[in-house]
Amino acid sequence: MWAYILKRLLMMIPILFGLSVIVFAMMALIPGDPATAILGSYATPENVARLNRQLGLDQSLPRQYLTWLGNLLQGDMGRSYSLNRPVAEEVFGRFGATLILAGASLILASIFGLVGGIAAAVRQFGWTDRIVTFLVLIGISTPSFWLGLLFIMLFAVQLQWLPASGMYAIYGGGGPLDLVRHLAMPAVTLAIVATAVIARLTRTSMLEVLRQDYIRTARAKGVSERGVIYRHAFKAALVAVIPVIGIQAGFVLGGAVYIETVFQWPGIGRMLVQAISTRDLLLVQGGVLVVAASYVVFNLLADVAQTIVDPRLR
Amino acid sequence: MVSLALPGRARKARGGRPSSFQLLLANRLSAAGLVMLLAILVLALVTPLLPLPDPNATEPAQRLLRPGAEGHLLGTDELGRDLLSRLLFGTRISILVGLSATLIAALVGSLIGLISGYAGGRIDGVLMRGIDLVMAFPYILLALGIVAVLGPGLLNALYAIAIVNIPFFARNIRGITLGLSRREFVDAARLSGASHPVILFGDVLPSVLPVIVVTMSTTVGWMILETAGLSFLGLGAQPPQADLGSMLGEGRKLLFTAPHVSVIPGLMIFALVMSINLVGDGVRDVLDPRLKSGALAAPGAATAVKREAVPLAESTKAVLDVTGLKTEFRIGERVYKAVGGVDLTLKPGERVGLVGESGCGKSVTALSLLRLVPTPPGTITGGRVLVEGRDQLAAREDELRGLRGGKVAYVFQDPLTTLHPLFTVGQQIAEAVRAHQKVSKREAEKQALKLLHKVQIPSAKARFNAYPHEMSGGMRQRVCIAMALANAPELIIADEPTTALDVTVQAQVLKLMRELSEAQGSAVLFITHDFGVVSELCDRVAVMYAGRIVEIGRTREVLKDPAHPYTRKLIDCVPILGQPERRLDAIEGLPPAADRLPHGCAFADRCPHVELACREGDIALMQVAESRKARCIKPLAGEVG
Asked: What span, in angstroms and rounded, lies between the C-alpha atoms of A56 and B23?
């Protein structure tokens, strides 16, 4: 078990290395001269040359990468010119907010997705099954950014139950209760698609498992139907569902970009959108890198969870 | 289990196979989606021909009109532009962008997949590592990164969405291609000297095409949604150009004053994506039935029972008393009569073998006894099964649960698939104990360990915490037997328990079963196709053919002097050591299909002694000697014949 986790941790290294190469290459491949892009087209050639030297752009690409990687490992992601502060500071300052939003969504999606999928599978062809199947279809077809707007209109404007935006109230805010009130709408909105995907897969894999010989064995030895479904079938179905929850972590982290924009959540996603509009590429680079790395960690956790459930993988 | 034809094949045999399009329409939801999608597509196509105002013509005096305003069916936006016109033109752009992105992703992704799967080796390795890397990024984040590099704009958003979707195509197509390029027709093409591109695009591509279409139909809605999303963020379509996403994004600022400006385009995206997904699901089900999600029914807790008449019950001392048991499988319009009226009685402690070829209904008989035949498609349509004098076909589900693993226990064929792979064998045995005895977890585990000793598993204590996959086949079957013994059953139903085992292990397991049944006084119903096993273990033997018992009697007598021609043939098939000249003819012909049983004797077509009378009507199981019955009008042995 521990050996497996260690092996899996070591396997992260090439993935993270690959990520860093891609993120670096993205910036290196930008058409045109970055220094000119930063300084504007009226910059003097001397200034451009000096900035190029400062950024290390007169070096060869591999050399530039190594320098960049070295800085990165020391926590230096460069300086954001639009905010005029270190990229690392800005990115990690916002990372917590994104993690809270994405984490809450993933938890909601897992709970409702699993429950919905099991309920549908157990009553296959019945009304519960039809309703769940239909809700899944609606879930994967709804633009989350639009749904967020509808929620704001309903719960913030009409009913005035929940705040429309932000993470904490500006006056007298703070505390976990305030956070939950602000988190409710964005987390639910972000969870919709993931819930639908998890529910659909849970249903399929439950139905698949319920046809297996070992389920017949469980029934043949007199295990109650509840035990058959929740202990025997669910555990086996979970093996197929866990990796999908891991993948959904990626969709939730990415989808946070929309939701943070709609609900003005102070996370990395909203920062990225602003950074792209202001062409603050170092900020984009830092944000993408940190979120992508956290996705790698999410996948690692999913792998480990799968190994705990399924002894055959150890 | 009886072998069953696939429902699709059955339908094909019945009369022309319905076309793919007909199948798609047969799915009501998909048909509705298709209608909706066609309506939207037609509307988008004819938009330039409609008498609509210019979508970009501003008219500040008419700003923010509500839907239903005169001359502006859906109202106007903050610059006084007509929303209906903008909506329809925006829909055109969104569809075009989504389709283009899908095409690019499909083209590039499929190409990568084809090459990777066909070339294999190092090329495959490099390409797939690249794909893995792309997939290591959160989906939308990578698209954002690409837009950041290329700069905001509709075309760049399109490229970004196309690139992040390439892996889906590459992976799916690679998997299929990998399988195909090992197939004979590809080898044949290679040997005939065809060049790689010719094989790849001439032979492999046509077989892969359905998968490409399926992947496209299931991703196009998603891509429309995502390009709209990038436009919503202001990274896609730039003013004055507008797609549905950017309309929604611009309307967001007016959410509190004029919600219709953002609600309407959002509704359109939803309708468009929903209809595409409905059609996509339908297309997938038609073209790639393997992927059809949960289409096959999962069996319930107990077989459905639909009996017209229940035979009268007499109280007997038998552990098991079966009369006229009938089980059918209904698949489509076909009815497979797997068990067609079985009578069988087991006295306490008696061991009876139930023998027959595969497909004769012996396993279905065994499973029917405690209603373990999957419903659907199985239904018990007649007879009664008395266990300790009570008809369990009329029992409630909780009574049935009390019998299962309590008074009556099962041992199944393949111990690898019949044990739960994710629980230790100890847990599984302890669970069987606790299903019927009110004992603590610790006490149940103690009993489970004793049971492991009882079935002679070496170092039982260590094996207690082993998982099934860590044990050998013989050990696993011992675990299954231990599980069956957990509650000292009066009857053990063993469904080919040794078939999946090596010959030496078979002998050990048989010996164990005999010793245990003798020691405990449990009756055993032993289902097998092997007469050797029967002679080892059983007091009596019943021979099944086409769903019915054709001969029953004491094992030694039946083996020595079979009365039914079928039994004779079966025994002739058994090889005997030291008699190499013995003819091992398989019986000529095939058993009748369970959905087309002949009138009269089911064995008539293969029987060497067949007469006209054999086909005339139903033949009863007749007494041919003391304690011997056969379903034959001209039995080969016995006092009557």
From this structure: 63
pLDDT class of B8 with cuts at 50, 70, 90: very low
Q: CB-based burial of residue B626 (10 Å sphere; 0-12 exposed, 13-18 middle, 19+ buried)?
A: exposed
pLDDT tens digits, A17-76: 888 888 888 777 766 666 766 677 677 888 878 877 777 777 778 888 888 888 888 888
- Give the gap in angstroms from C-alpha B471 to the nearest C-alpha of chain A: 12
B274 touching A (Cβ < 8 Å): yes
Give contacts of B 17-76 with A, CB under 8 A. Answer: 29
- Interface residue A301 vs chain B (CB under 8 A): no
Q: Could you tell me the pTM of the whole model?
A: 0.87
CA-based nearest distance A212→chain B, Å: 8
Higher pLDDT, A168 or B365: B365
Instruction: Determine which of B254, B368, B420 to mutate to test the interface with A (most A C-beta atoms within 10 Å).
Output: B420
Helices B205-232, B154-180: axis angle to 10 degrees equals: 150
Helix (H, G, I), strand (E, B) or coil at A29: coil
d(CA B397, CA A231) in angstroms, rounded, equals: 19
Report the candidate in B35, B76, B39, B38 with the shortest Cα–Cα distance to residue B54: B76
Tokens of B122: 């190092």
Tell me: ipTM over 0.90: no
Work out the minimum CA distance from B433 to partner chain A, whole angstroms.
Answer: 9
- Over its C-alpha atoms, chain A yields an Rg (Å, rounded) of 24
**DSSP per-residue string spanning A177-194:** HHHHHHHHHHHHHHHHHH
Q: Which residues of A169-193 are buried (b: 16+ CB within 10 A; e: fewer)?
A: eeeeeeeeebbebbbbbbbbbbbbb
Does residue B11 surpass a pLDDT of 50?
A: no
Which of A:55-114 have CB within 8 Å of B? none
The tens digit of pLDDT for each residue in B211-234 reads 898 889 888 999 999 999 999 998
Q: Measured between CA atoms, how close is A235 to chain B, in angstroms?
A: 8
The answer, yes or no, to whether residue B271 has pLDDT greater than 90, is yes
Q: Is B486 on the interface with A (CB under 8 A)?
A: yes
Residue-wise pLDDT for A178-194, tens only, equals 888 899 999 999 999 99
Q: What pLDDT shows up at residue A189?
A: 95
More confident position, B332 or B67 = B67
Shortest CA distance from A158: residue in chain B = B256
Count of Cβ atoms closer than 10 Å to residue B91 Cβ: 24
CB A153 within 8 A of CB A70: no
Rounded distance between C-alpha atoms, residue B206 and residue B201, angstroms: 7
Chain A partners of B29 at a C-beta cutoff of 8 Å? 137
B34-70 pLDDT, tens digit per residue, is 999 999 999 999 988 888 888 887 787 777 778 877 7
Residue type, B630: A
Are A143 and B225 inside 8 Å of each other by CB? yes
**What's the CA gap between A71 and B84, in Å, rounded?**
53
Minimal Cα distance from A225: which residue of B?
B301
Q: In what order do the strands lie in the sheet with B628-630?
A: B408-411, B491-495, B523-528, B351-355, B540-545, B548-554, B628-630, B622-625
